[in-house]
Amino acid sequence: MRILFDTNIILDVLMDRKPHSDAATKLFDSVETGSIAGYICATTVTTIHYLASKAIGKDRAKLELEKLLSLFEVAPVNRAVIEMALRNRMADFEDAVLCEAARHVQVNGIVTRNVRDFKKANINTYNPQELLEVVRLHS
Length: 139
What we know:
single chain, alpha/beta, Rossmann fold, globular
């Protein structure tokens, strides 16, 4: 199962944001064991670097990103993705970019804590608990 992780799920793990980090960490474990092929959007990488640099410094932020990149593939944000996001009917452009990047790399869905923000997305969307159940059923 190929899943794109929304930025909020990545931040839940990296910042240990309780209670959300528990389910998010289990999903990271599923990526590590190969139950999920994990993807992150290129915009997530830049957002994580920016926030981590402010919180823990640039050098440590780079180390954390290297760990993240050893686990996840990156869904590119290119002209085609941006043009599709501009035509997307979603209210939030950032979410539209994420959705179109996910479609571009042909994932099976997106995991996010903001499922309602993706109502108009033309891709399956899961909250972390839902995705954990799907993974459990397919194991």
